[in-house]
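REQUEST ID: PR-0412
SUBMITTED BY: lab tech R.K.
PRIORITY: routine
TASK: structure prediction, single protein chain
INPUT:
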Amino acid sequence: MNILVLNGSPRQNGNTKKLIAAFTEGAESVGNTVNIVDVCKKNIKGCLACEYCHTKGNGKCIQKDDMGEIYGLLANAEMLVLASPIYYHGISGQLKCVIDRFYSAAYPNKPKRLKKIAMFLCSGDRDMYDGAMFSFKGDFLDYLGLENAGVITVAGSVTQNKLAEANALGKMIPSYNRNRV
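STATUS: complete
OUTPUT:
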């Protein structure tokens, strides 16, 4: 399976990055391909709500920035993983800009190959996930009709148990034989 991980954390050695690494190790160990994009290192602007993508653009955004790289990876992804620290009851602003720009990628239909989604959330408080989960459910499970592959939350420092959970989730993702007919 071709998996796209969108890392919304600016911390290079933080909890979010550790979960992604454990998941990636598990997913790749069973033959999956994982592409990780550190969205905080990209030049991605917010959606302009100009409707170009839904009119003249035929699903293409008018903005020419690093989101083009993500659109290309998203078109081939069979699974999406959103990973973020919780900032003010939701995902990071950098990841939110990327998700807002999915507006053009989901027009007139969701990306054809995309079937599953998972989410990794890290916070200092175990009761801070409602805002991010509202978006996960409404935007990805309900609107795009993606299958929930799992949600992993970390309150405080990441533990070996959480890393093992992320690794096991990666191993559970089926690797498809690309040569099948």
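NOTES: Strands lie at 2-7, 33-38, 79-85, 116-123, 147-155.
REVIEWED BY: pending
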